[in-house]
């Protein structure tokens, strides 16, 4: 039995046919965890779909109506890169409901993982990059509206930049600035990498570590963007992550961290160009969890991308995130920095 809950539904499977996005990975993660003897049935919570009014805390009524009516243009469907159907809409609403539940439970319990979600390329008025609606942003706005928290931080470790997150939480109240340690290039001697920061007085602080030479072409500014060079490996990645987390948590005191734990920085990912190992990705997870736990900050997790040549590797990476969460939760006493 885990010391926190996992949110999952059999209906998380996205009916999108043959696709590089393996929508059966969610079920396989659950099966893997049972196979390892790491979980039992009592660890799981079944989500309810987000409501239209939840979704409209982030997305424009015009866009939500188009989804409900099925009136996206061919161009809009193409930009989403997944086939539209009412069933796909229902599935995204269920993932968003799962992220809302995970955020609520994280605030209550200190940690919660949604075995789904992380659709960080969805914008207020359109979807793209396999993402229809932004479940994490919806979850943040819901728990803020319910006055469970005021300030949240997103930590996005998917290989692709969180462009939707940056746009949703950017804008008003943001003052462009530079981190004390930030300059393009070589904090850790990396050629081609870069960290860019914006000092913020907003209620949501956004951190994204991603491969610079990858989708999305246009990268709207997050609070902190770490633009990683092609082929970045474990040690460099972990050093950049440590630096970004330290910088972010010096500038901003979140009451909830939303960790977007993409599996696609993996060296054998079909849509990524970084060079992380499965072990390195688990150490990445541990770094994020320890940073949150040591400061007593609740953390909710979503899974985002993962397109390894062998789907079993994607499943291993995501399952390891849950194992790392459990190990950290059990071993790092909350609120005591170490
Ligand atoms: Zn991705």
What does it look like?
The structure is a single chain. With about 350 residues, this protein is of the alpha/beta class. About 40% of the residues lie in helices and about 10% in strands. The chain contains ten helices and nine strands. The chain has a nine-stranded mixed beta sheet, with helices on both faces. Helix 9 links the parallel strand 8 and strand 9. The chain is globular, with a radius of gyration of 18 Å. Zinc ion binds next to loops. The site of zinc ion has 7 residues, from loops.
- The chain-level structural class is alpha/beta
Between the first and last Cα atoms, what is the distance in angstroms?
Answer: 26 Å
Q: What amount of the residues lies in strands? A: 5-15%
Overall mean confidence score, pLDDT: 91
Shape: globular
Q: What is the total tally of β strands?
A: 9
Radius of gyration, taken over Cα atoms and rounded to an integer in Å: 18 Å
Task: Summarize the helices and strands and which ones pair or pack.
Layout (H helix, E strand, L loop, with lengths): L4 E3 L17 H11 L8 E2 L6 H4 L5 H9 L4 H7 L5 H24 L1 E4 L20 H11 L6 E5 L6 H7 L24 E4 L6 E8 L12 E5 L5 H18 L4 E5 L17 H17 L4 E4 L8 H21 L7
Parallel strand pairs: 1-2, 1-3, 3-9, 4-6, 4-8, 6-7, 8-9
Antiparallel strand pairs: 5-7
Essential attributes:
338 residues, alpha/beta, nine-stranded mixed β-sheet, 10 helices, 9 strands, 38% helix, 12% strand, binds zinc ion
In short:
Helices cover 38% and strands 12% of the residues.
